[in-house]
Amino acid sequence: MINVFAQAPQGIQTAPHDIRMLAAGHQVAVREVDFRPVRDKEGLMLAFLSGLGLTQTFGRNWDALYDVLTDPEQRPARLALVLRDYERFRQRGRKLLPELEEVLLGAQREAQARGRALWLLAEEPDSDPRHW
């Protein structure tokens, strides 16, 4: 399996199983955004607020999300954003998906233009009960 952190971020990629260990070896900070409870835009913004450790002053809109993802004062230079339950969210959140992916991929491009790295890693909860 290819180590995602050995290459520049490339869109939304599948998260490796041992993400935290791999990230630590490459000095990549990891933040997790849980999409399981997300049903609407407000829930989506709350998921990012929680996952990124933002304050209640976070604007909860697309521009504010882009700004916090690209702000070098708030984000580490090498950041992996783990998008938990992302594939299932893509099915139920179709109306939010175009804007969300535009923000995420735009932030990734902006990070790269500034010599920074933002990995977007889709992770699915393990459905095997032996891993619960």
UniProtKB/TrEMBL annotation:
Pfam family membership, one: Barstar
Source domain of life: Bacteria
All copies of domain Barstar (barnase inhibitor), residue ranges: 29-121
Gene3D superfamilies: Barstar-like
Protein family (similarity comment): Belongs to the barstar family.
Protein name: Barstar, RNAse (Barnase) inhibitor
Protein source organism: Deinococcus reticulitermitis
